[in-house]
């Protein structure tokens, strides 16, 4: 066990490390503030939360100009003086809010659920989901707002013991929020710590599958694609074992696995997996669900990028993308990353199709030309 500060309990690897931090690292100025906040972890979480809220408010400034919070009805938060954010699919004035107001709402809901011993039930999950999903339009927050709410969640539960049932979900939410805001290396660090804690505490295999899935997603984003593929294959196998093929978690795992296959240019395997699972996703989740849309997007990209793609394959890819683009825009809004990505893919697929059609015409003309003397 390393040495710790006698006042604020900040831990160090040894006396030399503590001395250096006090003399050169600024701990002499921060020690009282850290103690007042409740310790180093809590102090850091509070600080990062405030920074994330500032970034989110600035990012949303143009969209929120002249609006008020649908929760407290004020433009500036009465206590924090923060501005508004908007990062969901709500229309009209309903989607404007303060991060603090959103956080306070969900904290109350989760506290009530804890008091009524609802942890582990669907009723609790519905309340917990408000940390990451809008309670009005039922679409997930994204980008810098997801990051701010991730820090809001983490600072709420960081002080709890490692074995507390809410600490690990809070870590997961923070990691996903960091990823949404493109803080990818930080996200990976949190996820690796979460997985280590899960194994240390002998968490259920199902919960570990969720943590592994999130870590694989993070590995994929920072270019560690082989590791992501290996984990995603294992997670998909595990979800099939626990839940069967007609389950949202299994279908999500299938989508992630197919994405890894596509990213590593295993296009044949990716297409085969999607062909098996898209009909299930359409039936179980619906045409407008994000997983259904992502699966069809992956399939179209695999069709386009496969070196063996025929002209008909490219036409099918364009048709698929043009079919899902309006659905994504209607369900998630035009600014959502999924919508933006699909619309970019439509343009790229059309360019590929046009180039291929032009090439095939040229080939046909060349074939009809009489041989030179």
Describe this structure in words.
This protein is mostly helical and 373 residues long. Among the domains are: 1-37, no CATH class; 40-203, no CATH class. Helices cover 68% and strands 0% of the residues. The chain is built from 16 helices and no strands. The model has no long low-confidence stretch (mean pLDDT 90).
Alpha-carbon distance between the two ends? 89 Å
Q: Work out the radius of gyration.
A: 24 Å
> What is the beta-strand fraction?
under 5%
Inertia-based shape: globular
Number of strands: 0
The tally of helices reads 16
Brief descriptors of the model:
373 residues; mainly alpha; 16 helices
Task: Summarize the model shown.
The chain is an all-alpha fold. The chain has 16 helices and no strands. Helices cover 68% and strands 0% of the residues.
How are the SSEs ordered, and which strands pair?
Layout: H1 15-23, H2 27-37, H3 40-59, H4 61-64, H5 99-115, H6 122-128, H7 143-157, H8 167-180, H9 184-200, H10 205-221, H11 225-243, H12 248-263, H13 267-284, H14 290-305, H15 311-332, H16 337-368
């Amino acid at each position: 066990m390393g040495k710790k500060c006698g006042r604020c309990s900040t831990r160090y690897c040894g006396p030399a490390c503590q001395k250096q931090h006090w003399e050169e690292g600024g701990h002499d100025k921060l020690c009282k503030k850290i103690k007042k906040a409740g310790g180093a972890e809590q102090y850091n979480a509070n600080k990062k939360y405030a920074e994330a809220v500032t970034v989110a408010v600035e990012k949303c400034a143009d969209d929120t100009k002249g609006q008020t919070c649908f929760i407290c009805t004020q433009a500036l938060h009465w206590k924090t003086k923060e501005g508004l954010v908007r990062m969901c699919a709500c229309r009209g004035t309903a989607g404007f809010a303060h991060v603090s107001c959103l956080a306070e709402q969900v904290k109350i809901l989760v506290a009530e659920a804890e008091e009524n011993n609802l942890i582990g039930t669907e009723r609790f999950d519905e309340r917990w989901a408000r940390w990451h999903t809008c309670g009005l339009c039922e679409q997930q927050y994204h980008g810098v707002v997801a990051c701010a709410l991730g820090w809001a969640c983490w600072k709420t539960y960081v002080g709890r013991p490692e074995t507390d049932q809410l600490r690990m979900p809070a870590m997961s939410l923070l990691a996903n929020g960091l990823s949404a805001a493109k803080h990818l290396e930080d996200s990976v660090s949190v996820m690796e710590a979460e997985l280590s804690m899960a194994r240390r505490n002998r968490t259920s295999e199902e919960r570990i599958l969720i943590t592994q899935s999130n870590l694989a997603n993070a590995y994929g984003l920072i270019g560690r694609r082989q590791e992501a593929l290996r984990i995603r294959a294992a997670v998909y196998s595990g979800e099939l074992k626990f839940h069967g093929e007609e389950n949202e978690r299994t279908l999500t795992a299938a989508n992630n696995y197919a994405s890894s296959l596509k990213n590593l240019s295993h296009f044949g395997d990716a297409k085969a997996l999607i062909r098996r699972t898209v009909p299930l996703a359409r039936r179980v989740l619906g045409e407008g669900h994000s997983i259904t849309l992502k699966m069809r997007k992956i399939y179209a990209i695999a069709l386009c990028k496969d070196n063996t793609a025929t002209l008909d394959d490219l036409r099918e890819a364009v048709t698929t993308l043009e079919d899902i683009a309006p659905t994504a825009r209607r369900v998630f809004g035009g600014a959502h990353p999924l919508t933006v990505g699909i619309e970019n893919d439509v343009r790229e697929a059309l360019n590929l199709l046009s180039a291929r059609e032009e090439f095939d015409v040229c080939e046909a003309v060349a074939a009809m030309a009489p041989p030179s003397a």
